[in-house]
Design goal:
162 residues; Rna Polymerase Sigma Factor, Chain: A; 2 domains
């Protein structure tokens, strides 16, 4: 677990973000809640072998993969999947070469900033939360969130220029 958080604190802090991601992909709160429980059980089981330096990024990626697997399993069993689920599956199809390049840029970017900046970026750009919602989630002012995002954008511009 993150060095400063015990299991309950870790779950309390990150479960809402994971649930939002799962619910967005699955469109079903019950299935999303099941995936969240399963995900955190896996993280707890493998906590010593996982790199939890940036837990929000890892959890978001794990949630996406687990949801896509859930959708694929339902499709294999002959269950009807909604249009939204099919679109989510297509949208999340990975281009590994581009993803590797993007991950390298993001790793370099986030090494220069506090871990909370990564969380802010995920909540705003990936989960689609407003600045106000992000501010409440991370317990910062809206101006503070805006400043962090602006700083990240400036750093990214500099990285891309290199």
């Amino acid at each position: 677990m993150n060095q400063n958080l015990n299991a309950q604190q870790f779950y309390t802090r990150y479960a809402p973000m994971v649930f939002r991601r799962c619910n967005k992909l699955l469109g079903d709160k019950n299935s999303a809640a099941d995936i969240v429980q399963e995900l955190f059980a896996k993280v707890w089981e493998k906590r010593n072998s996982l790199n939890l330096d940036y837990p929000s990024s890892l959890l978001w990626r794990m949630a996406t993969n687990m949801c896509l697997n859930h959708i694929r399993d339902r499709k294999r069993r002959g269950e009807n999947i909604s249009c939204d689920e099919a679109i989510a599956q297509i949208a999340c199809t990975e281009n590994f070469e581009r993803e590797t390049e993007n991950r390298d840029i993001l790793d370099r970017l986030f090494k220069r900033h506090p871990e909370s900046s990564r969380t802010i970026a995920v909540l705003h750009f990936i989960d689609g939360m407003t600045l106000e919602e992000v501010a409440v989630e991370v317990k910062m002012s809206v101006a503070g969130v805006r400043k962090r995002l602006k700083t990240l954008k400036n750093s990214l511009t500099k990285l891309e220029a290199v």
